[in-house]
Amino acid sequence: MSEQESARTSAGASAGSSRVDDVLERASHAFAIWRGAPVAARAEMLARAADAYERRADEIARQMALDMGKPVSQGLAEVRSCAAILAHYAAEADRMLQPEVVSRDDGGRAEVRLQPTGVVLGIMPWNYPHYQLVRCIAPNLLLGNAVVFKHAAICAGSAAIAERIFAEAGAPEGLVTHSGFSHDEVFSAIAHPLVTGVSFTGGEAVGAEIARAAGASLTKVVLELGGSDPFIVFDAERCDELARLAAAMRLSNAGQTCVSPKRIIVRRDLLTGFVRTFSAEFLSVRAGDPLLAETVLGPLSSAAAADELRGAVRSAQQGGAEVRGDLSRDDADPRRFAPVMLLEPLRDQPVWRRELFGPVAMIVGADSVDEAIALANDSPYGLGATAFADTEAAAQRFATEIDAGMVAVNRIRGGSPALPFGGVKRSGFGRELGVHGVREFANQQLVVVDEGRSAGRARIA
């Protein structure tokens, strides 16, 4: 849900409330059926959905290009990620839902079982129309929950495809629902007694509003609110390679990625060479038609987003940062934004402490590991971080001392669905993917059995 949608006031509140009731009651009915389905049946449905994503990859990628401007080549990669997530949960179903045995000193047996809780409301962003959705849906369907989702308005076409895929894969009617809820209806749903969990990915201001609403209803919430990830380069031998890698990562999805390397911190004596190689890779790319296979950089989500980003860069330039790149507006398509580098922005400038959602790279030098860690942590966000160290001691310090939910040292994190995803500080809380994503909206139920009694008289306490 965008900030603009958040500000709107919906008409027809009574009709909206009735629609919320209808959607959630259908989802609750589907949940009652689905929670009783054998784990093997749930896994088979997820496997069929994975196959459907693979079969329909071209159609899905094209729709994402039309919805929000993602180049089709990157859309195809997103589809592959979705299929991999679904296949992973299908393959790991038994292991993930296996009860955890807890040791006891009185001879009895205790275990923690993951039980479904009901209907999860997913509030989805536009930047990864299917990936964000699937990483919410897959673990919850495996657990036995139902998912009602509200997608960004510009992604209605992608949302409809996702709903059809799960229906055709065998999900009971109402189990996975594209709600189309308005802003007011979203908040009515959060407060609804049938909603047992809320998962939100998006902006910090709306996330805080959702957290307040969920808290008022004592409803569990998971928030992924973006980041300003550091990318630290201290490895001299790989400097040119890492410059090219950072440029490619920052260009991906037109820089509209929460874990993109937005703040690049380079050992001072490597800075000149790094900037030279990075510039050659980064500034040579121009935005193109997202429907063409050769396009690397698509447009931003809107002309307003491009204008706002341009204003942030110009403000940093006025504050003393060196700007490299073309800041002119493309009147033929004002959503297009050429790559821009910000060299040595001051840490007291607003641009350093915000998330730049577009192909803008901030690059600063650091004289020591201490300074690099201080720069990395000097952010209200704490989603991810990547660091390439020159010594084992530096690698250990980066892993231990960087305040982020995910830290990769001497390699990129990668996108394995087995790895939990989430952050700290103002990047939110909770985890998606892996077994952690299953546990978020589970009743982690303790069951204690007195095994000293006969099976016929077994007592559960």
UniProtKB/TrEMBL annotation:
It comes from the Bacteria. GO terms for molecular function: succinate-semialdehyde dehydrogenase (NAD+) activity. Keywords: Oxidoreductase. Residues 13-446 form the Aldehyde dehydrogenase domain. It holds the Pfam family Aldedh. The keyword Translocase does not apply. This is Aldehyde dehydrogenase domain-containing protein.
